[in-house]
Write a structure and sequence with these properties.
Elements (H helix, E strand, L loop, with lengths): L9 H9 L2 H16 L20 H5 L10
Amino acid sequence: MTEYAIEFDDRDLREWDERDGSIRKKFEKKLEKLLLNPYAPGNEIYTAATGRVPETPVDRTNQPSGRNRKR
């Protein structure tokens, strides 16, 4: 089985250290799951509809899976 690791750069590590413990705990659980299976459905950073990585926050909200999708 392939073993994965997550690395933080200095900026991210400083931001991580500034977070409240309860928030860090939630992220730690998610990161542990990602380490076990980084290719799980729902972890993609692209949209299958366009086949590209969103480049701006506006692009991200216009994705079918974004918050602003019609229900």
